[in-house]
Amino acid sequence: MTSSCHDIWIAALNWYVDPNSGVTRVGTENGVAISRRLAHAAVALALSLISVSGGVTTDRVAHAAPAESPVLIDDASRDVQVRHPAASCSAYRVPVSLAMIGTAHLYGELCTPLGAPSTHSAVQLLVPGSTYNHIYYDMPVRPGTYSYVATALDAGYSTFNIDRLATGRSSLPPSASYTFDAGVEALHQVVTALRSGAIGDRPFDTVVWVGHSLGSSMAWSAAANHRDIDAFVLTGMSHVVQESVPDGGPAADVPFEVPAISDPMFRDTVADPGYRTTNAGMRRFFYYGPNADPAVIAADEAHKDLSTVQDTRFPEAVPSQSLSWSIAVPTLLVVGDRDQYCTVPVCTPESILQHERPYYSPEAGLDAIVVGDSGHSVQLHENAPQTNAAILEWLSVAAPSNR
Fold this sequence. Notes:
Layout: H1 5-8, E1 23-25, H2 42-47, E2 71-72, H3 74-83, E3 87-98, E4 102-113, E5 122-127, H4 143-146, H5 148-154, E6 158-162, H6 180-196, E7 206-212, H7 214-225, E8 231-235, E9 257-259, E10 275-278, H8 294-302, E11 307-308, E12 331-336, H9 349-356, E13 367-371, H10 384-398
Parallel strand pairs: 5-6, 5-7, 7-8, 8-12, 12-13
Antiparallel strand pairs: 1-13, 2-3, 3-4, 4-6, 9-10, 10-11
Helix pairs in contact: 6-7
């Protein structure tokens, strides 16, 4: 069965959770009671339905001749360096070669802790979700709270914060040529460049994939096609999604996404009717209001990005045929307890693992964190510092920064 984004592009989260709940781990108690759940974004549900039978296979993603070397972008490098004065930061345009598209490029910002020795060889590849770009991981509001990049740097990790293909400052190929497969292949070529030392001043021996929503489901395909990632942190994504019937919530009679050419933010730069974006004011439904900073929601709206139908349409799969079964390295799932991906009335790490373990091999050593009072954009709520600290604590064992 195939799910369309237009069937479910309704996002509103409205239920009760114990106010004492926070970032919880396996083996801890979390008194969570859900009274009502509205449907989440189509990207969320549709992306959870990716399967091998539906279509991302290695032989479908042939690529052209090797791309040229990454190009340093001076003005963008200065901007990111100003944001992170305690690190060495540069912005790059990374060429990639893709069938049906040809040569394109991905935009990325590489930051390394100042004074990191040459033996420092771990980098986190940050892959944002649908209608997001690199700003998701480096929100320009109270960086000490909302910048995962800053927190990872403080923990000793380098980060490469990217705009996926067909978003942000990366190439926007014709929507008819863009495919989910091409987006994953482009990321694989970025990983290859990080490992070879083509990006920055050193080769990285350890690459950690940190994904959000679509960026997490792309990790499943990356693992099925390429074994070049040392650990996965997958936020805002699960295979089992709780569905409920909308009950007249604030988004019930308004399209969640619209053609980008109809949005004032994009109408002067995007002429392709196949590109879409969220409708005005809809970003708030990625958040649980009482634990969200209005300034962050406003910044999210101001920096929203693009999606395509190819990102949101995939057939279902039984667990044994899931792309994620190919993952054979440490994997952490992170979801908000008020997100559609917390799949049961009482959402705990144990319940998430019960539903998700059948989709992963034992080699993944699946672990889970449930973030209290958090919606879909789990790293952009007021308790983001606790969430990020929990992620980095897990990574300190799974993929240490000095390995």
